[in-house]
Predict the 3D structure of the following.
Amino acid sequence: MTKQLDGITRNLLTAVADLHDTPSGAYNLRLNGQSGGRRSTTNIQITTKEDKPGIDVHIKPGTVNESVHIPVVLSESGLTETVYNDFYIGEGADVIIVAGCGIHNGGADKAEHDGLHRFFVGRGARVRYIEKHYGEGDGSGQRIMNPHTVAELAPDSYLEMETVQIKGVDSTIRRTDAILQNGATLVVKEKIMTHGNQLAETHFNVEMNGAGAACSVSSRSVAAGQSQQIFCSNIVGNAPCNGHSECDGIIMDSAKISAIPEIVANHLDASLIHEAAIGKIAGEQILKLQTLGLTEAEAEAQIISGFLK
Amino acid sequence: MLELKNIYFQAADRDILHDVSLQIADNRFVVITGPNGSGKTTLARLIMGIEKPSQGQIIFNGQDITDLGITERARLGLSFAFQQPVRFKGLTVTDLISLAAGTDKKLSTAEVCEYLSEVGLCARDYVNREVDGKLSGGELKRIEIAGLLARGDQTKLAVFDEPEAGIDLWSFNNLIEVFTNLRTQSAASIIVISHQERILAITDELIVLSGGQIASQGKRETILPQLINIDYKYSCKGGARND
């Protein structure tokens, strides 16, 4: 990377983007509110926004087998920022976008990263978007992340979002709004684990406006300690389409999980399903793994790690 | 050697097992049979430590394991295949078989395939599948048995609770083969809870439970012919009897 990275930054980059070194292909590293390095390629141009913090990423039509990494690292306590990133994915492109935010807060002040990511997915394009959130540091300051994703899917395009928040984020409110045209597909796979007094809220609003649109929103979550999670999904079918949302939660200790699903069919041929299940780890699952020689704690850890895999 | 001494088990003020004593020597194949409600599954679960006896002692290889938990018994060499296999969201067949094998790292696809093939599953179709409700009862059952096989030499005593329940005829032939192979390839003792005549036919010893007590016990050649009469007794009104 352009700047010399310290150990904390390297750890955070590994946690959020599996990066051990400069990624191949296009990338933009945001480090404590400033640029930590950038590379554009022939097909993927990254430019700085002029009116507000953030970047525009333009991916040329037909770009295939390329990736963009845009990790964000906050390692200074007391830093609060809001970033606006827009992605324009050209027709027929097939790319992977890896985002992610890591916060190391060793101080008493809160560190907060809020982001608005907008995806304009061109006709027939395919995007796999991976976003990991991770927090660490033994300071008393809160680690806060509030991502907002807006996706507009042109006809026959495909967007798959994998979002993971496993550790260390004290408070998060995630919003995802998507509009799907004819034959467009949105797949969302969310994984969240909360501990202590953490709070995680996720809101999905998907509007399927074109014939043959499809969406699948699934959330797997584990809430432990005193933590609280709220899952809200609103899937609207305005055309012949298929929608599925699913919330699967494991609750532990004194934690709380709410699932608030809404499915709205405004067309006779809109087929919408919601499934939700919240409960503690089944006792028989623990027993089974104990018969293989695992302790109760080991069994619990295996069940959770498998569930969130 | 496994020894049960004067085992009692009560649930909801009812005697499920009443003064059961038995011994299972090393390297033996023993089938415990009896009518529904006779206490067979309870007895199997008591041996594994999933249930605790109200009274009595369980001795395994000279050690009193009555108060030991499931994990400790598993580490001493007891293995257990559940009658109703447990489903896991997220854990794959490879994860489960690897945990059973007790290795620190995941088994390779080839290693998992070896165990799955033994229970008649076309392995590559299964290694990455989750052990959840999308698998049929028969598939789950075979994976359960493959898990026990993967414990390998760790197993000194294997307990199968109604392994035939929920599997089809084809799988059943395969199941008989699994037991036959286990007998020849392993020094472990095997206890099978079963009603199935073909499993009864390959055992060394038979223990017949009725109404929570041992009705008869001995070599297969001696006990099997008597079962016709015992069956008649089971079919009396009221099902299992406390006699």
